[in-house]
Amino acid sequence: IDPACTNPVVADRRTRAQKLLDGTIEGIKLAARTGKLPMNGGLKPQLFISTTETDLQHRTTRGRPGGIAFLPYSGPQPLALLDTELCDADVTTMILGNGQDILNVGRTQRLFTTAQRKILIARDKGCSFPHCRTHALATEAHHIIPWTEGGPTNVSSGCLLCAYHHHLIHNRDWAVELIHGVPWFTPPYKLDPHQTKLRNTYHHGLPHT
């Protein structure tokens, strides 16, 4: 976040401890993306998330309680906490019957390709959230229309966000839209009753908006 930012709508409210944890998590993610970590059971580092189709649909419906996911070693977790992981990851769909028999296993899909990320980096130049100064190599590709809601995986439906703002977008009711190729962000009503659209100007050398 721009340390000179005085806009309370986009101010960074994290504590020092939260910032340190976010930095640690980002370091782990950068290491995982190198492809040089050791294999485990013949697989690269992965997160296995198990949930039902009903819970997944509830998670993507505003005004309804989110579903529950099950993770190895940690048990049930709110699906809302995993939105960011579902947004930019390899996803394997596995359909289970009523008796937990495996009915169908879909192929793993890479959501944003390397080529698409390069285009997003060239366009956004860094985290596209207003006033954020995080450089492009420390960002994640975000689906403006969530992939779990049928959103396409293409440049016209994506933008770059740092880990902190990626979680914020998924969990704080911010809206994102592309206007002439630029990501614009609409804050939730409780933060700004006028819901004034904002964009990142730092990476493009423009005056603050």
UniProtKB/TrEMBL annotation:
Residues 115-167 form the HNH nuclease domain. It comes from the Bacteria. InterPro entries: DUF222, HNH_nuc. It holds the Pfam family DUF222. Signal peptide: none annotated. This is DUF222 domain-containing protein. The lineage of its organism: Bacteria, Bacillati, Actinomycetota, Actinomycetes, Micrococcales.
